[in-house]
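Hello,

Our lab assistant flagged a job as stuck in the queue for most of the afternoon. It eventually completed. Since we weren't sure the result was trustworthy after the delay, we are filing this so someone can double-check. Below is the sequence as submitted and the structure that was eventually returned. Let us know if re-running is recommended.
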Amino acid sequence: MNRLIIIGAGGHGKVVADNALKNGYTNICYIDDNAKGDVIGFPIIGTSTDIECLNDGSTDFIIGIGNNAVRKMIAEKYRVNWVTLIHPSAQIAFNAEIGKGSVVMANAVVNVCAKIGEHCIINTGAIVEHDNVIEDYVHISPNAALGGTVHIGDNTHVGIGATVKNNINVCSECTIGAGAVVVKNITDNGTYIGVPARKMD
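-- returned structure --
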């Protein structure tokens, strides 16, 4: 199996490394602009300025950064072999689609006819129900639950334990706060909190 370089050696990058191990990668390393040495036993071999020279055609890459905007910037800047990682304990429907560069973490569920975009994070225990459409650079946080036929616009973050009712559309560039409950379509970008979720002033 190819070497895997994880871009970002922070907390999310650590979880990505564990996911990679469970997918059979044994040659794992990091690049990070703010850290040196090694992280959980895997070496940091350079910074973002080294990505081009490390792209030798036989190396796989994935972004281990939770921030949607940063993940988008990196993904659009570099043309490398972005891979998709799905934890073995995740439950993925036979016809679900998951885009390149995306990560599905432990015990997550992606149900039938769901479509996950590129460079998304479906985090630990998150539920993406049937017929969902998750656009690019979205982060569905741990234990968040999306009912059936939900559409989440690109660059949106759904916080820990948040719930989105079935048949709801959430526009791009939104933040849904931890524990929020979305019961109506969201058409204006911004931050939404509470039960039911309302836009912060």
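-- support follow-up --
The delay was a queue issue, not a problem with the job. The result is valid. The mean pLDDT is 97. Residues 123 and 142 are 5 Å apart (CA to CA).
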